[in-house]
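Quick note —
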Amino acid sequence: MSSVTAPLPWVPTVRAMILRPILAHFAEEPKKLGVLLHRNNLSPDLFDDPYSPIPLAHYLHVIEQAADFAGDPFFGARLGFSTGPGSMAAIGIRAAQASTIRRAFVAFSHFFSAVQSDTQVTLSEDNEHFCINYMITAPLGSPLRQDAEFSLGCYCRLIRDAFDQNLRPVEIRFAHPAPTGRRVLARLFGAPILFAQRENSIVLRKEDADRVVRIEDLDIITVIEKHLVDQCRTNGHAVSWSDRVEAIISLYLGVKPTDISLVAAALQITPRSLQRRLVNEGQGFRDILGRVRQQRAEALLRERPNSQEMIALSLGYADASAFWRAYRIRTGRTPGEVHRESVS
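Predicted structure written out below.
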């Protein structure tokens, strides 16, 4: 299944497209961009496919560090306001097709898992106000300022581009503490800013949220939603521990030393507990790692003219000899035989 149609794995991840505005910002400073990606174990090749899954924690570290690299404490907010709906691919285009802001963010919240997991975009309201709420649910520590300001900036840009250039929120709420120079945010959002709140939220007047600005083209919406449904996780699916382990190995393979300690840390449990849960499912960590490596190796051997040395490194082996021996033991064939079959 291609990454365009595959749902994100059952671990905290984002699509590579989320980082593309950051890459564009540093396009004329390749050294800074290279250091930023290297520090976070991200290869530039990942961004060839905008639908590639990237660990959520890596994205969050990148955007926080990017503010330091740019020398701009309000980097996230400015980046959000420079990111139009089209940069969010199908989910942004779907929201921009809606007749009202409310209907746009009903769709946005419904399909958000297509682009970012372990995150909630929810809607709430009272007698006068309509709220768009954003919060990462993965246990990643303290509130992450740059991501929150970037995300709400993107949503405000979507509202202005698709519905009303002059619309200003009633207020903006952030979960993080107030930064120095916060008046910059008030000017960007065109609204009062509250800090240390329960959620990150955009508060609108109900009449603004429900004002009809276009007639929806149901044929176009149906096509876009079919595309998004294929990318979303299925609610209620019971995810096995072996599935979670396989997803994490797939994300980190060739990027970090992929051992049970790394995977257990990503799942917020001890290595011993993880091993026990895998045994209960009739699985073993080494078997899962071997299976992922085999699948990745066969795809690389068949699809690209890569050297065995390069393939070995991308699979986390020390060298080509170690890869050759492991592949031969697991499959009974050599990597060379598989490659020759693919080109014959």
